Each structure stands twice: as structure tokens, then as C-alpha cells.
């Protein structure tokens, strides 16, 4: 994904009000994607109850989106550079809206999983264009304010997604149960499509890299060969073909590396710029992003199942319980970038990993102590500690990873960072069948569900704590103090801001 400056002449005049309409449109689309990622988790138990979805289908409703999004991110960005960011954005938001309709009107779990995969693929076309359009539309002296607004949107999406999902699901609008969480995208998407056609200015990169569809296909096939047996293996009794498939995924990834080396030598536009991994801080940072994604993928799905299925809480109560976590993430993210990292550097990220790990261990202790009688306010302390730790990590991590990347590879590096985090998230969701469902014996009597899910939750938290320990150690390979610090409030804007700064 490249973010090459559009010539100044292509930018609207400073007094052109259309650029603010364009900003509102693309930020609404970004907000729609952010909310869609978090809103689904709250509705998962309702989908399972009403549609009879299996546990592996539940995993694929979330993992399928993450996998398609990750596999298409870099290609989506390059398509915008080549064919026009406005054009690809409109294709993406139109496809995302259509996929949302298919999700909302899905007649069975299989159709819902397929529609979610399509939705993730369309998001991969839409999302990379958002900040590219902002960059092409606004002059340099206005971009700081605009990126600040984008950071606020990221924080708002994190907080409002679970609450909105809870209200829509529990409200059971028109008797539709969980379906409004997807159908709410329809009026928003249609408005964005119509207004975007009128107000967004077209832009392209003067020298865009070529597409690497073979590389994207190899990544997707390799991940499917790894994830599908993980999610279905437990239900099918861990058949031999599953182990063969997982082993074969390693061969596919080896073929990917070999192909990317040839592709880079041939036309200089591989999906993955392998030379980046010679930079120790970048290689370590990619590992941190991937492992961090695994931990988050495990935690958020298991947490939802624990509260709603294990404890029997309503969607609204579960959504409200997560508010302290979201607020703590946003507050700590702002402090880490603006105050702490410029002064203490890498130690802030490592402190975040330790703090988040401490919150996980505290949560384990409370879940054991209070059992099925645990309350939302008793969860507040570990959730605030976990959220504060996560905030210390997510905001400055991308800046630290990119700080030693050569200028000419900043675009590839930034795209790869976001891609591997989504891939890690998909892998974490796949591992839920092992670290959570793997300790739950089925079938369960009604009285056994709560204790079994509570035990599975504590077991999964142990895995998350171990993941955070690995992250803490990997962070020793990051630079002690990143060369420059770019203000932001979350992964996506921070990555792009850093990339813009390097490329411009």
C-alpha cells in the first residue's frame, strides 16, 4: 500500500467547503467499519441462540471478516493508488453496504459467514482509501487537525460499538433480533455512496506499485489451511487431514517467501517487502503486532461468551460492563503518545504489556473468587488496568516499529503492520476452539453451562497472560526511543501519520 503525495494542484482550494463534506463522508465510513468489528461480538450469543450456529461458525463470523480484511488491505490500497482512491472507495463502501444487507438477511449461519467474509473484503477496499483521500484533499497545515479528528473517531468507535450492538440486539427492533446490527449500515452506506460521488475529489498516485495478486492469494490460502482445521478440529475429533493441512500451511508460507523474493527482484512491487525484516526493530515489531493480535482475538470473543452465556447476562449489561475498558484505553493512549513515550521511550510500551498482564491475572483471580456471582463493578478494576495497559501499547507501537524503516519502504511497512495485526486477530479467533472450547466437555446440561464457561474463561485468560509475557520480551528489540513521535490515538491513524511524514 503506497501513500504517495498527490500534486498540490489536485487538492481543493483552501476555501472549498466540499473538502469538509468529503471528510465527513470518509470518516463516517471509517466509523462504520470500526463499529462493525466490535458490534458483532456482543450479538454473537444471540446469533448462536436464534440461528443454531455451531461454535466453529461463531468463530468464523468474526475470524472470516478479519481474515478477508487482512488479506486485502495492501491490495486495496494499491488499487486506490492505481485506479483512483475515490473510485475504489465508492466500490468498497457500496460492496460493504451490500454485504451488510446480506448479513442482515442471512437465512442460515453458512450464509452469514460467507457474507461476513465478503464484508471484510469490501472493507479492505474502503478503509485504505480513507486517509489517502484526506491526505489528497487537505493541505499540509490542516492535516494535523484532521488526523486528530480521526483519532477521536477511533476512540468513539471503540466505546460505542459494544453499546450500540447491545441496544440494537436487546431492543429486538421489529422482531429482527440481532439483524439490525448489520442493517443499520444500509442507510449510512447508501448516503455515503451518493454523497461521496458528489463531494470526494479523485486522486491517484503518480507512481503506484503494481498489484501482487499471487502473493495475496498465497497469504489467504496459507491462513485458511491453518485456521480451518483449528476451528473445526475439535468438533470433528481432530482428524488427520487437519494436521496435514496445518503442516502444509508452512509450505505455502515458504512458497510465499520464495515468490515475494522473485517478485521484488522482477518489478520491485511485492506484497511483502522482505528486506524490511533485516531491520531488527521492524521484525520485532511485526512479531509484537502479530502476537498482540492473537491475544486480543482470544480475549474479546471469550469474554463475550463468558458474560452472556456463562454468566447469563443480557447484551446491554455486557456492553455496559466493557465501558471502563474502552475509556481506559482511550485515556491511556492519549497520555502515552503526548506525555510518556517522548520522555521514556520503549519502557512505556513494556510497562503497558506488564500492566495489561497484571489486569488479566487480577481478572482471573476475581473470576475464581466470586464465581458465577461476580458483578460488573467487581470486573471494573481489572478491566481498567487492562485497558490502561493496552492504551500504553496501541498508540505508540506503530511509531516505534516504523522509526528505523528506510524512507523508501515506509508505505509497504505501514501496510504490513496493519495486515499482520488483523492476521494475528484471525489466528487468535481460531485458537479459541483450543484454549476455550477445548476445556469444555459437551454436551452440557443447563446447570453445567455456567461453571464450564467460567472455567474455560479462566483457562483462556492464562493463555492471554502468557501472550503478554512474550510481547514484553519481544519489545526489548524495539528501539529504546523512536526517532520521531507522531501524535495519534490508535493504530490506524498513527501508522498512516508516520508513513505520511516519511513519504512526504
Write a structural description.
The protein is mainly alpha-helical and about 500 residues long. It is about 80% helix and about 0% strand. It has 17 helices and no strands. The chain is globular. Mean pLDDT is about 85; it is low at about 1-10 and about 485-504.
Q: If you average the pLDDT, what whole number results? A: 85
Secondary structure: number of strands: 0
Radius of gyration: 22 Å
**In terms of per-residue confidence, which ranges show pLDDT below 50 for 5 or more consecutive residues?**
1-10, 484-504
Question: Could you spell the SSE succession in H and E letters?
Answer: HHHHHHHHHHHHHHHHH
Shape: globular
Helix share, percent = over 70%
Count of runs of 4 or more consecutive helical residues: 17
Query: What is the SS-derived class?
Result: mainly alpha
Per DSSP, what share of the residues sits in E-state strands of 2 or more residues?
Answer: under 5%
Terminus-to-terminus distance: 15 Å
Biggest pleated sheet: none
In short:
It is built from 17 helices and no strands. It is 78% helix and 0% strand.
Amino acid at each position: 500500500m503506497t501513500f504517495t503525495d498527490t500534486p498540490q494542484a489536485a487538492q481543493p482550494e483552501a476555501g472549498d467547503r466540499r473538502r469538509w463534506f468529503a471528510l465527513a463522508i470518509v470518516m463516517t465510513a471509517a466509523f462504520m467499519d470500526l463499529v462493525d468489528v466490535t458490534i458483532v461480538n456482543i450479538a454473537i450469543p444471540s446469533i448462536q441462540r436464534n440461528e443454531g450456529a455451531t461454535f466453529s461458525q461463531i468463530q468464523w463470523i468474526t475470524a472470516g471478516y478479519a481474515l478477508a480484511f487482512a488479506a486485502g488491505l495492501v491490495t486495496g490500497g494499491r488499487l486506490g493508488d492505481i485506479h483512483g482512491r475515490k473510485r475504489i472507495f465508492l466500490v468498497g463502501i457500496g460492496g460493504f453496504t451490500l454485504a451488510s444487507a446480506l448479513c442482515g438477511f442471512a437465512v442460515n449461519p453458512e450464509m452469514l459467514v460467507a457474507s461476513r467474509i465478503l464484508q471484510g473484503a469490501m472493507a479492505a477496499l474502503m478503509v485504505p482509501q480513507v486517509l489517502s483521500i484526506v491526505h489528497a484533499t487537505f493541505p499540509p497545515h490542516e492535516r494535523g487537525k484532521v488526523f486528530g479528528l480521526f483519532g477521536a473517531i477511533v476512540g468513539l468507535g471503540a466505546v460505542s460499538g459494544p453499546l450500540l450492538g447491545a441496544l440494537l440486539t436487546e431492543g429486538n427492533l421489529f422482531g429482527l433480533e440481532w439483524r439490525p446490527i448489520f442493517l443499520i449500515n444500509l442507510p449510512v452506506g447508501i448516503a455515503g455512496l451518493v454523497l461521496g460521488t458528489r463531494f470526494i475529489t479523485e486522486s491517484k498516485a503518480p507512481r503506484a506499485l503494481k498489484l501482487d495478486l499471487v502473493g495475496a492469494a498465497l497469504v489467504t490460502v496459507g491462513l485458511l489451511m491453518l485456521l480451518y482445521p483449528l476451528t473445526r478440529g475439535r468438533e470433528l475429533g481432530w482428524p488427520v487431514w487437519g494436521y496435514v493441512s496445518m503442516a502444509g500451511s508452512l509450505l505455502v508460507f515458504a512458497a510465499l517467501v520464495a515468490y515475494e523474493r522473485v517478485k521484488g527482484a522482477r518489478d520491485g512491487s511485492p506484497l511483502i517487502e522482505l528486506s524490511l525484516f533485516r531491520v531488527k526493530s521492524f521484525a520485532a515489531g511485526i512479531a509484537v503486532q502479530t502476537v498482540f493480535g492473537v491475544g486480543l482475538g482470544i480475549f474479546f470473543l471469550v469474554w463475550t461468551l463468558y458474560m452472556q452465556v456463562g454468566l447469563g447476562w443480557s447484551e446491554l449489561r455486557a456492553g455496559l460492563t466493557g465501558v471502563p475498558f474502552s475509556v481506559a484505553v482511550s485515556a491511556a493512549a492519549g497520555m502515552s503518545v503526548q506525555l510518556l513515550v517522548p520522555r521514556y521511550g520503549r519502557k512505556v510500551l513494556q510497562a503497558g504489556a506488564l500492566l495489561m498482564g497484571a489486569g488479566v491475572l487480577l481478572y482471573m483471580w476475581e473470576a475464581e473468587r466470586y464465581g458465577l456471582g461476580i458483578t460488573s463493578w467487581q470486573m471494573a478494576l481489572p478491566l481498567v488496568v487492562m485497558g490502561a495497559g493496552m492504551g500504553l501499547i496501541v498508540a505508540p507501537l506503530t511509531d516505534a516499529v516504523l522509526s528505523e524503516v528506510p524512507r523508501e519502504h515506509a508505505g509497504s511497512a505501514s501496510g504490513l503492520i496493519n495486515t499482520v495485526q488483523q492476521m494475528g486477530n484471525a489466528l487468535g479467533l481460531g485458537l479459541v476452539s483450543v484454549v476455550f472450547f477445548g476445556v469444555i466437555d459437551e454436551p452440557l446440561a443447563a446447570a453445567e453451562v455456567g461453571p464450564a464457561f467460567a472455567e474455560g474463561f479462566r483457562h483462556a485468560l492464562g493463555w492471554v497472560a502468557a501472550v503478554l509475557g512474550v510481547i514484553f520480551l519481544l519489545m526489548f528489540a524495539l528501539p529504546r526511543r523512536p526517532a520521531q513521535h507522531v501524535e495519534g490515538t490508535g493504530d490506524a491513524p498513527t501508522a498512516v501519520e508516520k508513513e505520511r511524514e516519511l513519504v512526504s
